[in-house]
Design a protein that fits this description.
It contains six helices and no strands. By secondary structure, the chain is mostly helical. It has one domain: Orthogonal Bundle (Cytochrome Bc1 Complex, Chain D, domain 2). Bound molecules: heme C.
């Protein structure tokens, strides 16, 4: 019986570690497929505006900062730098992370989809 707390602590550690790995291990090839859901609204790397702003150079870019794009005030006011963490939070639940933003997209509930599409953006959206 004395072993029980140790076993439980071990299980928590394992779950914690696999969640961290899921975030780290995005697969850009799979992310390309996920990006097909974004491509109608987001140019990847030419700088063109569609319904949404281009993703060109999005990693390391400030939210709401593409010149000439008519962002919502909420997106401009958020003023975060897009990186793996902020993109993960936004893409999980766009309307929760930035209330009032105008992206008409419900989000990617699957963390692996988010990690994959972020890995793809890091590689291809230059
Ligand atoms: C139906 C159109 C649509 C789809 C689909 C869509 N977006 Fe968007 N997205 C927008 C619009 C419009 C905005 C501008 C939001 C604002 O100004 O509030 C935006 C904003 C963004 C931003 C912030 C850009 C910046 O310059 O700050 C990111 C990042 C983003 N989208 C990523 C994605 C990704 C990744 C996907 C696919 C998983 C996706 N979007 C799917 C329309 C869309």
């Amino acid at each position: 019986m004395k072993l029980m707390p140790l076993v439980l602590a071990g299980a928590v550690l394992v779950v914690g570690a696999s969640a961290a790995q899921a975030q780290a291990a995005g697969d850009p090839a799979k992310g390309k497929t996920v990006y097909a859901r974004c491509a109608a609204c987001h140019d990847l790397n030419t700088g063109a505006t569609r319904l949404g702003p281009s993703m060109k150079g999005v990693i390391g870019r400030k939210s709401g900062s593409v010149p000439g794009y008519a962002y919502s005030p909420a997106m401009k006011a958020k003023a975060v730098t897009w990186n793996a963490q902020t993109l993960d939070a936004y893409l999980a639940a766009p309307a929760k992370y930035i209330p009032g933003n105008k992206m008409p997209f419900a989000g990617l509930p699957n963390p692996q989809d988010r990690a994959d599409v972020i890995a793809y953006l890091a590689q291809a959206a230059k």
